[in-house]
Fold these 3 entries.
Entry 1:
Amino acid sequence: MIAVADQRSEEGVMSRGGPVRRRHLIRELKRLRSARGVSQDEVSTRMGWDRGKIHRLEGGRLQRIKASDVIALCNLYEVSAEETEILAEIARESRQKSWWYRYKNVFAGPFIGLEAEAASLFEYSASIVPGLFQTKEYMAALMESSAGLMATEDEKSKRIDARGERQSSLLERVDPPRIWTVIDEAALRRQVGGPEVMKRQISHLAELSQRPNIDLQVLPFEVGAHAAAGFQFSILVFSEADSIVYIEADQDGLYLEEEEQVERYKLVFDRLQASAMSVERSKDFLKSLSK
């Protein structure tokens, strides 16, 4: 059953500036406007803004939300000074750049920032080893695929560096997220980079599976058709009441936030776990493949 990891509270998840805090800020501003019974057009008129600005702000399409705009909106909505300052501080923090901004041409969309703030991660990988668990050799071999051939050597190197920093920033920190991963047997059998690269990659997976915050299960061929046949996805859980589903695509991907959508994918993941090898059997299976 999918749940939030015990080691990180909701307050801990929301303690840094980033995509989750930004989402919280936007939701609060929309809630405060609705509570005052003010339409978006009325806000635009009373604030002296063009009609599109409030739509872009509440739709999450503004790259940066100014603290001064948040304060002005809070004054319009007659929000207390204390709550106004809390929301304005979130706006200030959300403007601070994190490590992944150095790789903005590598990481499309907000996924990396959201991943960095998740308390728990649930992922099903159908065709390749998940990015968080890839060795550099495996990454390099992927870069030689048809997509990778379109990049220069410098671009390939930057992509590998970016993925390495993503791994270390998430997996090696003091409070790593709780990670549940189901990997299709096909991803382990596919010879990316050849037998030696795969042997080291699978050994790396076996080592990671020993970590207390990582549960790894293998979905064997013998299962046949299953709940996620034909696609792969990730569920990012920030708190008991806040989760999103990410479905990877060529550039960015699809983000699902509606409660019914998220619950559907949680059910799919629960069924995948039930169909997959147990955590202990999966560890033994990985060890057998790495010999």
Entry 2:
Amino acid sequence: MRLAKAKTAITNFKKLTNDHLRTVDLMLTYVEVGTEFTNTYGDIDEKFYSSMYSMYDKVVTECEKDEELFKEFGDRLYSVVIESDGIGWGYHDGLADLYYSISWVE
């Protein structure tokens, strides 16, 4: 996986479209794919998980600001937490902490 290229693609998409919903969708997809990649191929490294965590944090921040965004992405945010269980470097715990920090979570 080329994280830098993926992040650049998300940034370019945001600039070109100014579509907030789809940009957040791409950001979450980035984390979903990274988590799936680890579950398929095994543990990566701390830098990889820091990047996934950082992007997840950005999605959570956007969802915290807008309940409609949370309604759109809440199930997927939770799924990433579930799918990350057992992944090292504190990744799962960090994602869980971020998810449960969202005020819309019941």
Entry 3:
Amino acid sequence: MNQTILQRNNVNISGKGNQYMIFAPGFGCNQSMWRMIASEFEKDYRVVLFDYVGTGNSDLQAYNKERYSDLSGYVQDVLDICEAIDAHNAIFVGHSVGSMIGILASIREPKRFERLVLIGPSPCYENKLPDYYGGFSKEDLTGLIDLMEKNFAGWANYLASAVMQNPDRPLLAAELEISFCSIQPDIARLFAVATFFADNRKDLPLVPVPALILQSNEDVIAPVKVGEYVHQSMPQSTYKLMKATGHCPHMSHPEETIQLIHEFLGILIVKDKS
């Protein structure tokens, strides 16, 4: 294994089994956000957790503004990790922008992935009316970036509450806010621009492997219409509208998330044998 890559992205591998299961965080998140569900798969898979460069406990010295000015740098992070651990036919579980990073990685190197699990994916956050509803106007997104520049702590507090929802469980939003604030503001801003102004709609029909779309019932970041659009645009997708609310069901509703992933993997195993 390439220890340089593993250290750069703070890669941690656990569990049994021969097949890798790679968990990719969403924007502003680190690998600890997977703790409520990742351990449930350790008995059957080699679970891989990592941080994007510039987040979590990654090697900050490896951060390069040019590389990470759009999502391709983060896609390369994932492919570098796959090469370092010699992953083939892996299960990829991505949250939010991590879903899109996994989609792009699977298109570039299909041999690395067998299936994708996409939690709250959005190929484009900006409304492109009348043909596409992403949930945000261009002014909304520009305002979010402006707030980051003027009041980073206020931005983190606002976005954490909007992302997590579930106001009856404030500790979840507080954890997300702490994660946001742990990232250097200039790095967070560039990642935010790369995330919220991306438009990957044209890539959805190119996904070469089966995918599960987990869509929260109430999600202001990736609304139901977006999840439906992703499903309609991907040729081998399975769509599940969850009872969960908020953009982080793997944290707020881990039991439902685990059950739906198990069902998806089990159904595909049966199909493969027939």
